[in-house]
Amino acid sequence: MPMACGELSEVPTVARLEVSPASLSLTSGDDSVVRVRVWATDGAPLLDRQVYWASANPLVASVSPLGIVSAVAPGTTRLAVSAGGKSSFVDVKVSAPPLAVVQVTPNTSGVGVGSTLSLRVSLIDAAGDTVAGPSPTWRSSAATIASVTAAGAVRGLAPGTASIQATVNGVTGAAVIAVQPKAVAAIRVTPATANRLVGQTVQMTAALKASDSTAITGRFVEWSSSAPSVATVSSSGLVTALGAGTATIRGSSEGVSATATVTVALVPVASMSVVPATLTLAVGRAAPLAALPFDSAGALLGGRPITWTTATPTVATVAANGVVTGVAPGTARITAATGGRSASSVVTVTLIPVDRITITPATATIQAGATVQLVATLRDAAGNVLTGRSLTWQSGSTTIARVTSNGLVTGVAKGTVLVFAESEGKRAQASIVVQ
């Protein structure tokens, strides 16, 4: 049918997207490519149509604009690709690398006859990361010198050296234990007290003595913290401050222990920023904001409790995690505060845009002088009906048929005419035959 006055050529409509592969199984650190083809409603491929990628959980797997998938950490996520209002999905599963090393700590140490020593095991995968796993099977190479329990507790039986082995899933690690004739009778940890800011460290040392007050060296000292969220301690006694509070650091050797007290304070917040500083979202949609506190040197401070508030809750609300939800059109200032400092983001809430219009009936035949009522339905990209929007009606030829502002068409003279409905840049048409 020839196009009447005012008719516009249409861009091919996307009918569906095909992804290959439809699912991925990757190991942390691996990359893979997902290919996508866009098809029009007439069955032709749309080779130049731009597509958009997104990951539901970028901490598990991220995806580039070219469909390159990068496995980040074990878990599952879903990738979405969209074009022209159509979407397709790819399920991604990321697994941890296989176990490579069983590390026994300490790998060399001494224990007195009749005393015990606790060994620990760390499981390390092929990527060098520590992973969880089953309890190891323990074995002593010289059971008359040192025995070992199912929990990794070594007991000195006679002077000498024994290899204590731990096996997990066929991978074995070992520690060399020297059984000493003298037992530890006393221990002193220094410094006895320490004050640190979050991120700072302090080295603890342990002096061991036998019952005759002679110094004992070469013995394993087991370190522990009463509050790991405040301060952790390494196997060598290095204490790292992590959070505000007080932690008791204990050094133990052969059943004898001593303690030190570490008090940790937060690094003062010198400035803050909220990203993004401006945000635009539609009514009913949600988007996250991030609060970034900095110290006086400009370093980012983590682990701070953030208080979120909105100046205009009738326009936009904000959750405790910084996720903003649009309530009504307008502007709202969202503020984040911590440590006596604050920063804001200006959020503009807009109406959900019109994605397409349909006219009912799409075709109609009337007599000259008769009328037919056309109804235009506006929908968003998700197919939801939109109301309260401005709508303009237009006849392609008023000499054949006229149309009112509410879509009532009146036949004027014989012929065929297209009647258009337009809103927010979207247009639909109906064909009217006047007899």
Topology:
Blueprint: E1 14-20, E2 23-27, E3 31-33, E4 35-40, E5 52-55, E6 61-63, E7 68-71, E8 75-83, E9 86-95, E10 99-105, E11 108-112, E12 116-118, E13 120-125, E14 130-131, E15 137-140, E16 146-148, E17 153-156, E18 160-168, E19 171-180, E20 186-190, E21 193-197, E22 201-203, E23 205-209, E24 215-216, E25 222-225, E26 231-233, E27 238-241, E28 245-253, E29 256-265, E30 271-275, E31 278-282, E32 286-288, E33 290-294, E34 307-310, E35 316-318, E36 323-326, E37 330-338, E38 341-350, E39 356-360, E40 363-366, E41 371-373, E42 375-379, E43 385-386, E44 392-395, E45 401-403, E46 408-411, E47 415-423, E48 426-434
Parallel strand pairs: 2-9, 11-19, 21-29, 31-38, 40-48
Antiparallel strand pairs: 1-4, 3-7, 5-8, 6-7, 8-9, 10-13, 12-17, 13-14, 15-18, 16-17, 18-19, 20-23, 22-27, 23-24, 25-28, 26-27, 28-29, 30-33, 32-36, 34-37, 35-36, 37-38, 39-42, 41-46, 42-43, 44-47, 45-46, 47-48
